UniProtKB/TrEMBL annotation:
Biased composition range(s): Pro residues: 21-30
Domain Major facilitator superfamily (MFS) profile, first and last residues per copy: 46-439
Protein name: MFS transporter
Transmembrane segments: 80-100, 112-136, 200-227, 265-285, 297-315, 327-345, 351-373, 385-407
InterPro entries per record: MFS_dom, MFS_trans_sf, TM_effector
PROSITE patterns in the cross-refs: MFS (PS50850)
Signal sequence region: none
Entry superkingdom: Bacteria
Protein's membrane topology: Multi-pass membrane protein
Classification via Pfam families: MFS_3 (PF05977)
Amino acid sequence: MGETAHVDSTDLGAPKVNPAATPPEAPQPPTVDSGGGSFAPLRLPLFRDRWIASTVSSVGTWMQDTAGTWLMTALTTSPLLIALMQTAASLPVLFLGLLAGATADIYDRRRLLIFWQAWMLVSVGILTILTFFGVMSPWTLLGLTFLLNIGSSMNNPAWQAIVPELVPREDLPAAVTLNAASNNIARAVGPALGGLMVAVFTHAVIGAAWVFAFNAASFAGVIWILWQWHRQPIYKSALPAERIAGSVRSGLRFLRYSPTLQGSLLRAFLFAFFVSAVWSLLALVAKKDLKQGAMGYGILNGCLGIGAVVAATTLGKIRKKISADKLLLFTSCYYIVALLVLGWLKMPAIVIITLLGAGFCWTSTMSTLNVSVQLSVPAWVYARALGAYLMTFQGGLALGSILWGAIAEHTSLRVAFTCAAALFAVSIPFTQRIHILKGELPDLTPFKRKRPAPAYFAAVDEEDGPVRISIEYCVTAESYPEFTHAIHRLESVRLRDGAVRWAVYRDAARPDHLNETFVMESWLDYLRSRERTTASDAELIEKVWKLHSGDGPPKVTHQIWVAEVPVAEAVVSVKS
């Protein structure tokens, strides 16, 4: 089947549902200015209740992280098994981050959050019961920690993506800042509370069990808040939702053709990979080098949190004075020094001061990279990009923890920290070539169509495909270099939005006639690609079309693959 239409550039790039309908406006990432002040979102009951429940739950999570790691030191002396606690916490995101983002982009986020919060409650509940009854083993602890963090990895992209549904757009920056402050407050007090609760009991096992029980109760509070929430999505496509496999594929396709997003993810992975030595081996530093107990370990973890809180309150001013690249260079160099301090110095005061700075650099780095991810993706793939970010970041933590734990197991803590610092230093000249938040950012707001789509669009079956879109241009010799430069920039736009193939050809008989062709898997995918066009994409399309010199606009043809019809069936059809 082949259909031909003459349409303008707004038709090619605009969102489309049907000839008579215009899709609703999509939620956008935070803007720079906040409308109602830093604490304005807390005046909204729904956001305030969610924020309080999230803070309490985060405190419980950090308490559990400290108690669980310390419990492992009581169950085994193996540095590798102790380091694997960090791996068990991080590895699920490595495998499930993109899947979590895909589900959050296509399913009801409220129901997803309730399900995964319940999953985590049950996991921690089982862990609590087994610990109270004294039947916990190192591998059981690792397994249940892994199950708990499966729920966490599936929960996190949806949890971050619901913020635009809770506050007005002008208060989004303040809401994002408050969420970061919530996590940093929990990071500052949670480890110390976890260590204190373990320390007040005669046996570390009983203290850890009570920490686990508190964490389970905190999940119940979050579930109650979500259960009371009557969700009203601010954006819902009129097209059928993507299936999970298709959603994952489209997310991967976008990542493949988005160099800016790739750079942010690569830097997040490498940073997390090297500094994971701090998180995975800190318990051993407290126990073996500093001769401290659970309370001492909690204080060391709390120092990281305090430094993170300071970063959250001052980072806005710092970003106004130095570029993101310089900030990331400073934090990387500081962590190299911090790794050497932890490996070679055994003076608690110096270690504490070093960890305060490490917490500051940790939050500064991860916040900068997180912002760069959010500003490099449009709304339709927002949760999938966040899932990919969490996947690469936690993957770096998980793989790094395995490596540094194995080195410490076979050599010493000093060797492990020194290796991490040396390799981190070697990586800096390469990572500095990947620029973050440099130059003018593209306009990723959805492009609003100006003219209706051709009438025959509504008559085509959504499952038909593959679909080939062919656009014929006439270009003068003077405009030829500029046109070829612009049209090849358009390739990544087509592929990011769903095309599986793209090419541009010149007519051998008429060199001034060029043909752009791209293929979609189905007509429905083509319609989705029209909804995904951003203002920046539309500007590039418009530039290409303006270089067309023929009579009227470029000729656009939509061609659908034709399946073979058996001759016998065709004869019967004709006779009937």
